[in-house]
Design brief:
Layout lengths: L2 H16 L4 H13 L3 H12 L2 H4 L2 H17 L3 H14 L6 H13 L3 H14 L8 H15 L5 H8 L4
């Protein structure tokens, strides 16, 4: 984490505490970081925002920030943190933590070339929602193609993982 990102997160909390930014302005700032690919700053901002009473008081806004946090974690290739957050959120928001969310996050990890993490998310999603395994077929196909391409350069880890989990 760079000093700039740490300061950005601290500034976000300070501005909110002083009342100079509305909850929506905080969310907009996090979204701007996500849009610009500044995933660490977005993650810090989301963590800070989730600690604010003004955010906690609004369930819809809290959920939006939680999803932004997940997106930031995917952008920064933090699959273990994504899984931990999904487990936590599933307990408090079971209707919102669905197969589509797992598949979406796996896709975002794949876009970052984080194939092992994407496989973990897909596998967790299939275990959590076995009746919706078909929802993950497209992502499994993409991961298989990516794993095969990576194996051509000598990186067999993703292909081996897909095999070990029975997807190949």
């Amino acid at each position: 984490m760079t000093i700039r990102m740490a300061l950005a997160g601290s500034l976000l909390v300070l501005l909110a505490a002083c009342g100079t930014k509305s909850p929506q302005a905080l969310v907009d700032a996090i979204q701007a970081d996500l849009n610009s690919g500044n995933f660490q700053a977005a993650s810090i901002g989301a963590q800070s925002a989730l600690g604010l009473e003004t955010i906690k008081a609004d369930k819809a806004l809290t959920w939006r920030v939680e999803k932004m946090q997940l997106d930031a974690l995917a952008g920064s290739k933090q699959s273990a943190d994504i899984l931990a957050n999904l487990t936590r959120l599933r307990a408090s928001n079971p209707a919102q933590v669905d197969a589509a969310l797992y598949a979406s996050l796996a896709g975002k990890l794949s876009q970052q070339h984080e194939y092992l993490g994407a496989i973990d998310i897909v596998h967790a999603g299939i275990e959590q929602f076995p009746e919706q395994k078909a929802r993950f077929e497209g992502e499994l196909k993409n991961l298989t193609l990516s794993a095969k391409a990576a194996s051509e350069t000598g990186d067999n880890a993703a292909l081996d993982k897909l095999r070990s989990l029975g997807y190949l």
